[in-house]
Specification:
Layout: E1 18-22, H1 25-38, E2 45-47, H2 49-57, E3 65-69, H3 76-86, E4 92-97, H4 102-111, E5 115-118, H5 123-137, E6 152-158, H6 165-179, E7 184-188, H7 207-213, H8 220-226, E8 228-229, E9 234-237, H9 252-264, E10 267-271, H10 275-279, E11 289-294, H11 298-314, E12 319-327, H12 336-343, E13 349-352, H13 355-364, H14 368-371, H15 376-389, H16 410-421, H17 426-431
Parallel strand pairs: 1-2, 1-3, 3-4, 4-5, 6-10, 6-11, 7-9, 7-10, 11-12, 12-13
Antiparallel strand pairs: 8-9
Helix pairs in contact: 2-3, 3-4, 6-15, 11-16, 12-16
Length: 432
């Protein structure tokens, strides 16, 4: 039960999506509407509970998701172990029972079941449990990182909100997994409003919120179950937590997730809200690269100055790349020259404005890099990815050229930038 999911497992496509073995009609009434919603045949709801499940599955194929009722079982643990002997690997088991005992719950979870519902449960509770089980089925394969190259962890951070950092993070993760064939994890740390799963047309599941609520559960098996598989090489951990439920954490869960992903994947792309740098600066300890995304605006310049200063003081081991997004052919609020002068370094990559490709990617539920492979925007993203993927080599020759820093205050830098907007034409200056 709950063995590592494999898309090549013999007969997986021929399995029934769901089967239930229940002890009473009230439980059946809770299951039927969920089956109807998901298009599953209600004929797969069987009477007899766990004992009947063991007998039936000993002579027939196991379903992808199995619901078993433990109410009539005198020894649930032994019966679950008997079920494990007849269940094929990969079956996700949801159990229900009337015993409210923490020790039983822990023993059942340790035996390999996915969830335990205390009767009487609601249809919504069952719906959530099945959604979690589906997320497990879509989880990543049990991958092992290559011993030939170090794990590469990259954080993508927006200097301002809405500059396209999340879209770029999804594209980089897709490029690393699809073009370069590295096993890649994408971790979206915007707990309430993250778009990591949404941008790839996936359901986020509840793995990330479970990790925050129970950090002690985080291990390799948890990662395997919690992450949602986007492709053979790309898996995502994202969330859409209720906006009326604040997530209270010291950041320990996020750091543990990073550590476990390091052990399983070759690359990790973190979509990191900039507020995380303030709240949980330790998350940058093992991050090799930071891609800081901005637009050519006055506010963008101000916050880029502050972020670059933060990295210099708090994460000197992290190499920061400045990426200007949505740069059009016409005039921008701040010219590239003035922007670079203000932040005292060159912009590393320019991503051109391409509304057509961005809209098409959103409609198709795919990354911008995948949809716009042949566009200037897609090519620019690919160039950025290549630069990041050079992690196994010496990047000293590729580091951005940084002008010598002058001892100018932040106010002075921004004042100088503002003065560039009000410079008078040469002719008018000469006349005076």
């Amino acid at each position: 039960m709950n063995a590592p999911w494999s898309p090549t497992r013999a007969g997986a496509a021929m399995r029934d999506p769901f089967a239930a073995y229940i002890c009473d009609e009230n439980t059946a009434e809770k299951i039927r509407p969920v089956c109807i919603e998901l298009g599953w045949p209600i004929e797969k709801i069987n009477k007899g509970g766990l004992r009947n499940a063991v007998q039936s599955l000993s002579v027939s194929a196991s379903p992808n998701i199995l619901f078993v009722d433990l109410s009539e079982s005198g020894d649930p643990l032994n019966d679950i172990n008997a079920l494990a002997e007849v269940c094929e690997p990969g079956t996700v088991v949801i159990a229900a029972g009337e015993v409210n005992d923490v020790r039983l719950y822990r023993d059942l979870m340790a035996s390999g079941i996915q969830d335990y519902l205390l009767k009487p449960f609601t249809t919504d509770q069952l719906r959530d449990a099945i959604a979690h089980a589906q997320a497990v089925l879509n989880g990543p394969r049990n991958l092992e990182p290559s011993a030939e190259r170090p794990h590469m962890m990259t954080a993508v951070i927006g200097a301002r909100g809405g500059v396209g950092a999340s879209a770029l993070a999804a594209s980089l993760a897709w490029l690393m997994s699809d073009t370069h064939k590295w096993s890649t994890a994408m971790l979206d740390l915007d707990i309430h409003f993250g778009t990591g799963a949404l941008s790839l047309d996936l359901e986020p599941g509840r793995g990330l919120t479970d990790a925050i609520d129970n950090p002690s559960r985080i291990d390799g098996l948890f990662i395997e179950r919690a992450m949602v598989r986007a492709s053979d090489k790309l898996s995502i951990l994202s969330a859409e937590a209720p906006i009326n439920q604040p997530m209270l954490t010291d950041g320990g869960a996020f750091y543990q997730l990073q550590e476990e992903m390091r052990a399983v994947f070759e690359c990790t792309v973190i979509d990191m809200p900039r507020a995380m740098l303030v709240q949980h600066p330790h998350l940058m300890a093992d991050v090799r690269y930071a891609v800081i995304v901005t637009e050519l605006t006055l506010a963008g310049a101000r916050d880029m100055i502050r972020l670059l200063s933060w990295f210099k003081s708090n994460a000197p081991q992290t190499e920061a790349f400045v990426v200007a997004n949505r740069v059009g052919a016409g005039a921008s609020e701040v010219s590239r020259k003035d922007f670079e002068s203000s932040i005292e370094r060159k912009i590393d990559f320019i991503l051109p404005l391409d509304l057509k490709t961005v809209c098409q990617a959103a409609k198709l539920g795919k990354s911008i890099a995948e949809v716009g492979k042949a566009t200037k925007l897609g090519i620019a993203m690919r160039d950025l990815c290549k630069r990041l993927m050079a992690a196994t080599g010496d990047l000293s020759g590729l580091a951005s050229e940084k002008p010598k820093a002058a001892s100018i205050s932040l106010v002075g830098k921004l004042s100088g930038l503002k003065s560039a907007f009000t410079k008078k034409p040469k002719g008018e200056a000469a006349a005076k």
